[in-house]
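Dig into these lines:

——
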Amino acid sequence: MKTKLLFILLLASFMGNAQFYLNEIMVDPPGDDNPNEYIEIRGTANTALTNMYIVVVEGDGNDPGDVNEVIDLTSQTIGSNGYLVLLTTGHPYTVDSGANIALDLTDGELESQSHTFFLVQTTTPPSTSDDIDTVGGAGDIGDGTPDGTPYTDWTIFDSISLLKDNDGSGEAYAYSNIGFLEDDTSQANPTLFAPAGANIIVTTGAQFDYVARIGNSTGSALTNDETTSDWVGGDLPSGNLPNWTISTTSNRAYPTSFEGSELNHIGSANPSQNTTLSTTDISASNFKISPNPANKFVNIESKNIKVSSVDIYNLLGSKVKSVSQLNDNKVNVESLSRGMYLLKINAEAKSITKKIIIE
């Protein structure tokens, strides 16, 4: 009996010190959801996920806080390389050999926008009859702040929100401190309910269906600078199965430097920057930007590649200048305020992004 009790205490201590992360989530990809959606979890190698669950919570205005989906991870173990990938039978992906694969824990139709994804540990299994937001609003609809049981019984390891006005209520509810909210240009932006200080990025005319941690990040920063952000989000174009590519269209990735990044790393470490650009026909070495810092003009010298256009973004992701045709390989930046910007060079149906400083 003492041996059993000691084992339980040691297990509790180990799990309490371990860290686990929602490393990648793809929902609502182009074409069929099943079997192309997936979730990747990162954590301590070879760790059993005792009493752990992925809980998907409704973010629509008509029934916010309702638990819509529960994925039971209790019988799963992190792979020898620190990754576990949740997939559906018939999936098209190549997964790193060191990762563990869990098949058919869902029906292959993950809840897409508008929801918050949680990775939690709890001794009381979550249920789709649960509601984590019942106080402060009219009737049984809360105020956007998670409260009461079962929420207070959860140990939350990670969370992120993917939001839109999915039911015409004019409202969207985030239960994570970070996330993305689609700006549907055909209607007014929904009223956002979120925890105090939450960083919810509004995506102009784009519904993000992919989020991932940058590299092996562990924090919860969300910025338009890949060197400081812990997360990247993006919209996926049609085609490119099985290795999807984040859209190369402006404002369909955040940080914007990840536009065109390939999703060819399932079950292994995520890129810490857009590695797609290191191709033979367009790469960082093909371009020279000078001067940098600049105050009047930026010169763009290219090696045997014709630049079709140039876009400049501030660090909030807003496009502040667009040049469709270069004059003597120069871009006039006199109108820009002092600070750091992202210079996106478009060439031969590809793009590359470089940081520039305006003095």
